[in-house]
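Support reply, case 0932

Customer input (verbatim):
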Amino acid sequence: MHSVPLDHIGIQLYTVRNIMATDPQGTLNALGAVGYATVGVSGLYGHTPERFRAMMDTAGVRAVLTHTSWDAMNADVQRELEIARILGVRYVVVPSLPGSLRTVAGYTHAAAKFQEWGIRCRGAGMKFLFHNHDVDFAKVDGKVLFDVLAERTDARFVNFELDLYWIIKPGYDPVAYFERHPGRFPAFHVKDMAANGSFEDLGYGTIDFPRIFARYAQSGVREYVVEHDTPRDALLTARRGQEYLATVTF
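Our regenerated output:
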């Protein structure tokens, strides 16, 4: 029987974005007090990277990844890597692609850019990841767009933060992807799904996380990052997520 390592349980700060905007230090402190070891950064809320890092240090949490954007990476990769270095992250993540790229040719172009950025990240001592949504599993001209990214990138430089909700929602099986692309999923967005298909707090929904987590060696997962896009009570959602990951066995 296995469990999630406590020091690899995190939360994407997007989940608590509304309270981060008004009280970032208090929010980070609360997340640390709940038991989170790590966070995924979703913007700096007007603070410098140095100030944001200091707030995380005060709260006793460390950033394992940061979400930047396709446009920001295209504009100035070096600046994004410098921000990531200050934050202390291991993974630099592009969380979505522009709708204008939603073709096989567009995703082929994105894969080539990811390769470039992955090489730059590796040179800076970090790793590059792409985070999926359901649209990335659309089939265009008979090809699943996500597959273009996986097949046209080198695992030495480009891997994936797999959002478990957004791969399951369009009808795909994470385990099948672990089998096809072993070791390429070092981070999970652990997001649960209600019976009606909407977002749900961890452990209160329908996704069989133990089945997915049991393939930890095959997936390559290291970081388990709680996320909920529209929580009613963000800190309650956060507490439930940490408690679920801290106690689930597989």
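We compared this against your earlier run and they match. Two observations from our side: Residues 138 and 144 are 6 Å apart (CA to CA). The domain at 6-247 is CATH 3.20.20.150 (TIM Barrel). Please reopen the case if you see a mismatch on your end.
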